[in-house]
Each structure stands twice: as structure tokens, then as C-alpha cells.
Design brief:
The complex is a heterotrimer of chains A (264), B (263) and C (277).
Chain A (H helix, E strand, L loop, with lengths): L3 E10 L5 E11 L4 E5 L6 H9 L6 E6 L2 E2 L7 E4 L11 H12 L3 H14 L15 H13 L5 E5 L7 H17 L3 E5 L3 H7 L2 E5 L6 E6 L1 H7 L7 H4 L3 H22 L1
Parallel strand pairs in A: 3-8, 3-9, 6-7, 7-8
Antiparallel strand pairs in A: 1-2, 1-4, 4-5, 9-10
Chain B lengths: L10 H24 L11 H13 L7 H32 L1 H15 L7 H8 L4 H24 L3 H9 L4 H12 L1 H26 L4 H10 L3 H31 L4
Helix pairs in contact in B: 2-11, 3-4, 3-6, 3-9, 5-6, 6-8, 6-9, 9-10, 9-11, 10-11
Chain C lengths: L3 H15 L2 H21 L13 H14 L6 H32 L1 H14 L8 H8 L3 H25 L3 H9 L4 H38 L5 H10 L3 H29 L11
The chains are: A alpha/beta (264), B mainly alpha (263), C mainly alpha (277).
């Protein structure tokens, strides 16, 4: 596990006179913390994730993981994509195993670790299936299993449940919470669904509209612990709680301000 | 208004119209030939052609039977086509991945691409005489470009998240090319193979018309010199059938690839 | 604010660097190949002159064919002759193929009627028609036009057909709802809607026309670029072969460019379907 640090990060697309996606972003994510980033569309939250993933480089400032500057993509910062990005020609097993093969893990250990990840994500029986044979929810589970099996320092999730229907989404959110308790690690979770962020995260960072910077960071964890949200197993029960509603509405209003500024 | 793209016909109707069209065509042909409007020597009846075709299967013409000629043609085609694919597909994939390679090779490729494959026949004759190298060069010139182009397009336009996922998983370049680019480009590559086969088969015929001593193309030239129109037409039919067979085979490969879920 | 000479230098460097890397690399490669060609054939004599011409050989051949004449004519005469046939054959093929394709796309009856015969003719490679054409029409221009017609006709039909079939039904329905008479429907709805595909078909037709003509001229002709290649091969004149092939390539490219220009001009604001093959 490792900490993520955004230090005075700026990102401009398309040369010096291009689009300023991130104006000046400072954010520190502690070791083992689950941070959700919410913001109006186009605010640059996905860009944040891509900077940590190593798919983009900052125009100014630095992005570091565990004290070291990010220099490119790699299995230490596993990514779960919105579009799943599974390899359609590989079976579920092979999809999950590729990262381990790249690391040179020997066959016995590889099989064991993949089996564990499959069990963790409730995919038993589907090892030999192909992605197109699975539902959206199951495909995303494969993607998550693929990320988890790497035992990454950091888990980066880019609107992972965005392409799923409402019911599947809820199920996946509950599973992710269960997973995060079982197997905690540093998570950067991008979403535009406020309730999802409040339900899942330790802290919620609210971004301004483009050019993006962090407007406000809300500590949800202390609320969750104080109000004992974990006592309730189902999402709908948690979402019924006054404390939940309070913070959800707070974040909504904050985003509304940003959005109306955008529409002006 | 009758017809229109939104009105489908029943299977029976399609068959009926089809047969009608075919009969009409054969009828006009036979009429022209029978009546002597066109001399029989230049336009044999469909029956003449058919019987000549059968005859050629057992009686040699210009040195061999029809199937023997076909066999040597197909063999030449296979060499040229497989060579074109074996060189073209890897090159296309590599060009799709390594931008520098693309920038170096592309201008040369674009310049050579516009040379009609058959135009290579002069150099082919000069370099290989009547050896097999000549036709193979010409077939290669025809079959090579579509393989490169389609492999290139397949590799260049692989969905970005797939490549990023592979990179995130720490996949090295060689493995990315073999295990991500290649499978993702399969549909494009197979489509390219179809075009490539068509051009290659066509180039083969052209080559045989000019620099060969066996094969269906050569057979046609001899038949033309002997004013044996029925033989020419039989050869044309044979060429068409083989070409069709190759295309059908590749088309079913394409369908199989699509079914297996390759993009 | 930088001083004048420094600023000028910066601008100059900027201009040089701004030339896309692709362009520079491409130029460099061609320059390197050209240098290699020169060195291999002249001082080092790595390649025998009987096999591949040196740049000087090519230059001599070019001068000869342009000013003195080769294979019964000067270069421009051969080129003109070839071009004339291609353009004529292409025009006839397009003029017959596009309407037929449109008809087959529009009327399922026409499609059902014509398809079997068309599918019969289609797999026969255009070059395979050459012996028959020569048998019927001799080695003159008529035979060439016939072969070109077969070559160019097929892509025109297929693509026009596809063009009509891919029109969304509601476009036609809207036109009919507005009471559009048949002819106007064809000219103002069908053809514009199918235009990208029609142009793809024309592009393929033109390529096929050119390729087929060169082949036909190679087999038997009195004039044309193919004839040059033929005679040069018999004379074992590599320099002239090179000139012939270069002309074939350049003209092939030029024809494509002309068609592309025509295409962009007649489809303002529409996305042209850029497909390679």
C-alpha cells in the first residue's frame, strides 16, 4: 500500500495554448485510504486518475506514489476502467492472469492467486468463459479481479460502475465495500454519483469545474464511524440515515454551485 | 411505386426471379450463337462451352489437362499470397505500433503502392526469366499492400483502453504486439486477406498471360492464338470458380473470427 | 523581449522543428534510399546494370523516350493514348455500373433478377477477359476498352448497391410522405445519400481501370505505357523499364488525386467514407 500525493499539479492539453484541464491541484491520499473524487463533467477528475496511472504526465507540479514520481503505467497502480477493457479473445482466467504472467510468476502460484481472485469476486465457474458471454456486472468483476490479483499498492477506479444498470450498480457497490474491509488498500475512486462516493469513501474530494482544482474535502470516515453506518448491511438502509443524507446534500449543493457557474 | 428498398421478397420470389434472369441471359446468348448472328467460332453456345470444359478435364490442351494447369496456377498463387501475408502482416502490425517505423516505411510504401502489380512483369522477366520467381514477384506485389494496410489499421485503431490496460498490467512491447494488437486486429487482417487474395489471384492470371509456360493463364493465351473460344471460356469459368472458392473460404474464416468474439 | 537577431534565429529554428517529424523522416528515408541506389549501381557496381538501372541509365532512358521516341512514339503520345483509353473506359463503366447498382439497390426485384448473372461474371478477374477480348476485337483499342469496362463495372455496381441499401428507411419515407416523384427521388435523395459509397466505388473502378489497361497493353498493344514496358523488357533495357513503371505509378496516383478533388468538391460538408480498398 502506498500514499498518493498531488503537488501543485497542472495539466494542459494541446500545447501551451490548449485546454487547461487542471489548474492547480493539491491532494494527499494517505496509505490505505479510500478517496472518492466527485465533480461536474469535464472537470478533470478522470485526468487526475490518469496522471496517477501514468497514462498522462503533469504539465507542472508532480504526482507521486509512495514518495516516488509516477513515470508510466504499471501493475503497482492497478486500473479498473469504465469500459472494462477486458481482452475479448482471452478467457476470464487468462484475462486475470496476464498481469501475473508479465511479472514472471510461476505457474503454480499464478493459478493459486487467480483462483483466489476469482473466489473473491464470486466468479467461480466462469474461468473458461469469454467476456462477451458475461453480463456487464460480471465483466466489471473480472476487471476488478484482474486488478486485485496484482496485489497493487494503489487501486485506481475510473467510474467503474458507470456503464452498469442501477441494480447491478448497487450490488457492486456493496461488494466493493465488503472487499475494501477485507482487503484494504489505497483507492482513488472517480465518480459523478454523489451517493456512491459518500457510501464508499473515507474522504470525498469535490472538484471545481474546469480548470479543475480541489474545492473541498470532506471526511466521511469519522461520520461513518460515529454514526455506525457499518451496522447496516444494505445500501438503502445506510442511505436512509440522516447523517448520510446531510452530507450527500451538502456535496450536491457544492456541485450545483459549480454546475450553475458552468452553465452561465 | 413498386419495389423500393423496404419491400422484401419471399424466398420463392427471389429464386424465381433469379432463375428467370439466368434463363434470360443464357437464352440470349444461345440465340446469338445459334442463329449465326455472331459466328459460332467466336461465340460458342453455352452447351459448347460446358462440354468443352468437361473435355478439358481429361484431354490435355497446351501441355496438360485443365486441372493440371489449375494446380500449377494455384501453387504459384499460394506461394505469392502466403509470402505477401507472411511479410505484410507483421510489418503492418509493427508499423502500427512503432510510430518511427511507420514514418520511415510509409513514404516508400505509398510510392510503390501505385505501381500496378502487373507492371512488375518486365523486371520479373528480366530477373527470373520464365522461372517461378517471376509470377511470385507479381503476385506478391498485388497481395502485399492490402495485408500491410489492414494489419496497420487494425493495430493503430485498437481501442485505447485495451492498450492502457495491457500497459497497466506491465505488459512488454513484444507481448503487447502478439497478445493484444494481433488478436484485436484479426477482423481487419482477415478482411485484408480477402482483398489480398483477390488481387493476388488476379495478378497471377495477368502474370501467366505474359510470362508462363503452364497454368490457366498460359492456357488461355494458347487457346486465343488457336481461336478456340470454347477453351478460352472454359478457362475463364475455371478461373472464376477457383477465385470464388478462395473468397468463400476466406469469408467463412471472417465469419468464424467474428463469432469467436474478436472485436 | 529578445533582441532582433536572436529572435530571428529562434523563429527559424522553430520553423524547421515544426516540420512534422513524419515529413522529415520520410524525406530522410527517401534521400537515403536514393543515395544507396546511386552508390550501389555506379561506383560500387554492386548490382549488375543488366538487372537494375543506375540513376544515369534511367535519365538516359527518360531523355530518349521523351524527345527521341521509343516503341513507336514519344512519351507524351504513349501517356495520352493510355489516359484516353482509361478515361473513356472508366466513363462507360461508371455510366453503366452506377445506375445499375442504384437500380439493384432500390428494387429487390431487379436485384433478384440480375444477381445470379452478376455473381457469375463477378469472380472472373478482369485480366482474364483479355484473351477473349483480343479474340473478339483484336489488339486494338476496342479490346482494351472492353476489358476496362469489365474491370471497372463491378466495383461501381457493388458500391452503388451498398450505398442505396445503407440509406436509413426513414429518409426515403420522409421523401415519399412529401410526395416526391420518382425521378426527383432518385436525383435529389438517393444519389446524394448514397454518394460516399458511390465515390468509393468510383475510386476502386478507376484503380481497376488503370491496372487493367496497363495489363492489356502489356499483353498486346501498339501504343501506351504497357507497350513501352513490353518492348523495354524484350530489348533488355532496364532504364526504360524503370521509366515505364515510374510513369505507371505517377499516373495512377494522379488519376486518384483528380478523382479525390472531384469528390471533395461535389460533397460539401459531407463526411466522405475514406476506405482504403
Amino acid at each position: 500500500m502506498a500514499a498518493i500525493t498531488f503537488d501543485a499539479v497542472q495539466k494542459i492539453f494541446g500545447g501551451k495554448l490548449g485546454v487547461v484541464a487542471l489548474a492547480r491541484l493539491d491532494l494527499a491520499i494517505a496509505d490505505g485510504e479510500f478517496v472518492a473524487v466527485v465533480g461536474p463533467s469535464g472537470c478533470g477528475k478522470t485526468t487526475c486518475l490518469r496522471l496517477v496511472a501514468g497514462f498522462e504526465y503533469p504539465s507542472a507540479g508532480s504526482v507521486s506514489v509512495d514518495g516516488r514520481r509516477v513515470a508510466g503505467p504499471g501493475p503497482d497502480r492497478a486500473v479498473v476502467f469504465q469500459q472494462f477493457a477486458l481482452f475479448p479473445w482471452k478467457t476470464v482466467f487468462d484475462n486475470i492472469a496476464l498481469g501475473l504472467r508479465n511479472k514472471g510468476v510461476d505457474k503454480a502460484e499464478k493459478t493459486a492467486r487467480v483462483a483466489k481472485a476469482i473466489e473473491l469476486m464470486n466468479l467461480e465457474g466462469y474461468e473458461a468463459a469469454f467476456p462477451h458471454q458475461l453480463s456487464g456486472g460480471m465483466q466489471q468483476r473480472v476487471a476488478i479481479a484482474r486488478a486485485y490479483v496484482l496485489d497493487p499498492d494503489v487501486l485506481l477506479m475510473d467510474e467503474p460502475f458507470g456503464s452498469l444498470d442501477a441494480q447491478t450498480r448497487t450490488t457492486m457497490q456493496e461488494e466493493l465495500v465488503r472487499l475494501a474491509r477485507l482487503n484494504p488498500r489505497t483507492v482513488l475512486f472517480i465518480t459523478h454519483a454523489v451517493e456512491e462516493a459518500v457510501y464508499l469513501a473515507d474522504r470525498v474530494a469535490i472538484m471545481t469545474r474546469r480548470p479543475g482544482r480541489i474545492k473541498e474535502v470532506i471526511d466521511i470516515r469519522s461520520v461513518r464511524v460515529a454514526e455506525q453506518w457499518d451496522r447496516h448491511e444494505r445500501i438503502e438502509d445506510v442511505m436512509d440515515l440522516e447523517s448520510f443524507i446531510h452530507w450527500r446534500t451538502h456535496i450536491w449543493r457544492s456541485l450545483r454551485e459549480e454546475k450553475s457557474g458552468q452553465d452561465r | 411505386m413498386t419495389g423500393g428498398p423496404d419491400q422484401r421478397l419471399t424466398r420463392l420470389e427471389v429464386a424465381a426471379y433469379g432463375i428467370a434472369g439466368l434463363l434470360l441471359f443464357l437464352g440470349i446468348w444461345s440465340a446469338l450463337s445459334w442463329s449465326g448472328a455472331v459466328p459460332r467460332q467466336f461465340l460458342p453456345t453455352p452447351y459448347d462451352v460446358a462440354s468443352r470444359f468437361v473435355q478439358l478435364l481429361s484431354t490435355p490442351f497446351a501441355g496438360a489437362t485443365l486441372q493440371q494447369h489449375l494446380a500449377s496456377s494455384v501453387m504459384r498463387f499460394a506461394y505469392g499470397f502466403l509470402l505477401g501475408a507472411a511479410v505484410g502482416i507483421p510489418l503492418g502490425l509493427l508499423m502500427g505500433w512503432y510510430r518511427a517505423l511507420d514514418e520511415i516505411v510509409s513514404p516508400v510504401f505509398d510510392a510503390l503502392r501505385f505501381i500496378a502489380p502487373i507492371a512488375w512483369v518486365a523486371f520479373a522477366a528480366l530477373w527470373f526469366g520464365t522461372g517461378i520467381g517471376g509470377p511470385i514477384l507479381i503476385i506478391f506485389a498485388g497481395a502485399f499492400p492490402p495485408c500491410v494496410i489492414n494489419a496497420y489499421r487494425g493495430a493503430r485503431f485498437v481501442s485505447r483502453p485495451l492498450i492502457e490496460a495491457a500497459q497497466m498490467l506491465g505488459t512488454g512491447n513484444a507481448r503487447i504486439i502478439l497478445e493484444v494488437l494481433l488478436p484485436a486486429s484479426t477482423a481487419s487482417i482477415v478482411a485484408g486477406l480477402r482483398v489480398s487474395a483477390g488481387l493476388g489471384w488476379q495478378s497471377l492470371i495477368g502474370a501467366e498471360l505474359i510470362v508462363a509456360s503452364t497454368g490457366v493463364g498460359f492456357m488461355m493465351v494458347q487457346a486465343q492464338l488457336n481461336i478456340s473460344t470454347a477453351t478460352v471460356m472454359s478457362a475463364m469459368a475455371a478461373i472464376g470458380l477457383v477465385g470464388l472458392g478462395i473468397d468463400v473460404a476466406l469469408r467463412s474464416l471472417e465469419a468464424a473470427v467474428r463469432r469467436r468474439g474478436f472485436a | 523581449m529578445k533582441t532582433s537577431p536572436k529572435r530571428l534565429l529562434c523563429v527559424l529554428v522553430g520553423v524547421i522543428l515544426k516540420m512534422s517529424r513524419r515529413f522529415v523522416l520520410g524525406l530522410a528515408t527517401i534521400a537515403a534510399l536514393a543515395a544507396l541506389w546511386y552508390v550501389a549501381t555506379m561506383p560500387l557496381d554492386l548490382i549488375s546494370p543488366g538487372r537494375f538501372p543506375s540513376p544515369v541509365d534511367v535519365w538516359i532512358a527518360l531523355r530518349q523516350v521523351t524527345f527521341t521516341g521509343y516503341a513507336n512514339g514519344l512519351l507524351y503520345q504513349h501517356v495520352l493514348h493510355s489516359l484516353k483509353l482509361v478515361v473513356f473506359g472508366f466513363a462507360v463503366a461508371a455510366g453503366t455500373g452506377v445506375p445499375l447498382g442504384l437500380l439493384m439497390g432500390w428494387s429487390r426485384r431487379a436485384e433478384a433478377l440480375i444477381n445470379p448473372v452478376f455473381s457469375f461474371i463477378r469472380p472472373i478477374p478482369p485480366l482474364a477477359w483479355i484473351p477473349l477480348a483480343i479474340l473478339w476485337l483484336g489488339i486494338g483499342d476496342a479490346a482494351k476498352v472492353m476489358v476496362i469496362w469489365f474491370a471497372a463495372f463491378v466495383p461501381a455496381v457493388i458500391n452503388s448497391f451498398t450505398g442505396v441499401r445503407t440509406i436509413e428507411p426513414y429518409v426515403i419515407e420522409a421523401a415519399r410522405m412529401l410526395g416526391t416523384p420518382r425521378f426527383r427521388l432518385a436525383t435529389e435523395v438517393l444519389i446524394p445519400a448514397a454518394a460516399p459509397f458511390i465515390f468509393t466505388g468510383l475510386r476502386l473502378s478507376l484503380q481497376a481501370s488503370w491496372t487493367t489497361l496497363v495489363a492489356a497493353e502489356l499483353v498486346g498493344s501498339l501504343y501506351g505505357l504497357g507497350r513501352i514496358l513490353n518492348v523495354a523488357q524484350q530489348d533488355i533495357y532496364p532504364g526504360m523499364i524503370f521509366v515505364g513503371m515510374a510513369c505507371v505509378a505517377i499516373l495512377g496516383w494522379a488519376l486518384t488525386r483528380v478523382l479525390a478533388e472531384f469528390e471533395t468538391r461535389s460533397l460539401p460538408g459531407m463526411q466522405t467514407a475514406r476506405v482504403y480498398q
